[in-house]
Amino acid sequence: MKFENIYYVTLLIQSLVLIIAIISIVFIAFFQIRSKNKIKKLKAKITQSINTALLQEEYDPSLIGNFSKKYQQEALLLTLEELNQNFKGENWDRLRKALVKQNLSAYKKSYHPNAFWKTKTWAARCIRLDPSLEDKETLEKLLNEKSFYVRSLAIDASVELEDKELISKVLEGMTKETKACRYVYRNAFMSGTKKTLDLVLEDYKKAGNNDLLRICCLDVMMCQVQINLPDQLAGDILSSNQELREIASQFLAKYSRRETRDLLVLASDDLSWKVRKNAIIGLARLNNPENVPIFEKRLCDPFWDVRFEAGNALLNCGDQGRAILRMQESSLNPISHDIARYLLTSSYDK
C-alpha cells in the first residue's frame, strides 16, 4: 500500500512540474512576442522622427524620443543600424552620433573580456555607429574576440577611424582568418578612404618575409580605383608561395600598364594556372601587338580557363588574332582547335 502511495505522489509531482514548465514557456513566449511588437512599433516612430529631423536645417536629437528603458534603447540601436546601411551624408552622421552619445554611450564603455556575449555585442554595435579614438583600447580588445560577428563590427569601426595602429591590428587579424572570412575585411576597406588604403600600402612595404600579411595587403589594396604600383610586386611574382604569386598576378592584371609588361610576361609561364590566366588578362589590356605570340602559345595551355583568356585576347587583336584562331581551328591539335572553334563561333553569333 505504501509503495502505491509513493508512486501516485511521484506521478503527481512530475505532472505539476510539467504543467509549471509548460506555463513558464507560454509566459516567456508571450512576453517575447509582446516585447518584439513594442520594439517594432517604436522603430517605426523613431524612423519617422529621424526622417523629419533630417529634412530640417536645425534639429534637436533629444526631441526624437526618450530612450531610458532597455527595449527603447534596443529599438533605437536596431533603427540606427538599419538606416545606416542606406543613409549617407553629414546631416545623418551628426544625428546618428548625437543619438548614440545621448542614449547608448554607456554601452560603449560596458565591454569587458569576461562579460557576457550580449554585452560585448552591444558594445561593438554602439562603437560601430559612433567610433572615436577614445574607443581605441576597447576596439583593440574587440578585434581579438572569439566571436567572428563581434570582430566584424570592430573591423568596420577601426577602418573608419583611419588610425595607423588599428589598421595594422586589423590586417594582423586578417592573416589569422580563413580565406572565406577575409571578405569581411575586404568589404570594410572598400568603404575606407585613400588615407586608409595608404596605411595598408605602408604595412605591405614593411611586411618583409611575412607572406600572409603581403597577401592580405594586396587583397585589400585591390579595392582602389588607381594605385601607384609598389616595387615589391616583382619579388611577389617570383615568390615560392603560390598564393602570394596568384594574388600578385591578379593585382598586376587589374592595374596593368606598360611598365608591368615584363612581369606579366614572366607570370605567363608560371606553374600555377591562375597566375598564367591573370597574366594573360593583364597583357590583353595593354593592346600591345608584341603580346600576340604569348596568346598564341597559351592556346595550347592544359587549363581551359587560360586557353579561353588567350583566345579571347586574340579575338580582340583584330585580323592578326582572328587569323591565328582560324589556323588553330583547322589544326589537328584538339586542345587549341576546340577553343578556337568555340570563340570564333561565339563571335559570329554576336
Write structural notes for this entry.
This protein is mostly helical and 350 residues long. It contains 19 helices and no strands. It has helices spanning 2-54, 70-84, 90-103, 105-108, 117-129, 136-142, 148-161, 164-175, 182-190, 194-205, 211-221, 233-237, 242-254, 261-267, 273-284, 292-298, 304-315, 319-329, 334-349. Helix 10 (194-205) runs antiparallel to helix 11, helix 15 (273-284) packs parallel to helix 17 (304-315) and helix 17 (304-315) packs across helix 19 (334-349). The mean pLDDT is 88. Keywords: Membrane, Transmembrane, Transmembrane helix.
Total strand count, please? Answer: 0
- Indicate the radius of gyration in whole angstroms: 30 Å
- CATH level 3 topology of the domain at 256-349: Leucine-rich Repeat Variant
Q: Note the overall shape.
A: elongated
CATH class of the domain at 256-349: Mainly Alpha
Measured between the Cα atoms of the first and last residue, the distance is: 94 Å
**CATH H-level superfamily of the domain at 256-349:** Leucine-rich Repeat Variant
- CATH architecture level-2 label of the domain at 256-349: Alpha Horseshoe
Please, how many helices?
A: 19
Strand content: under 5%
The oligomerization state is: single chain
Structural class: mainly alpha
Mean pLDDT: 88
Helix-strand sequence:
HHHHHHHHHHHHHHHHHHH
| Unreliably modeled segments | none
Percent of residues in helices comes to over 70%
The major sheet is characterized as: none
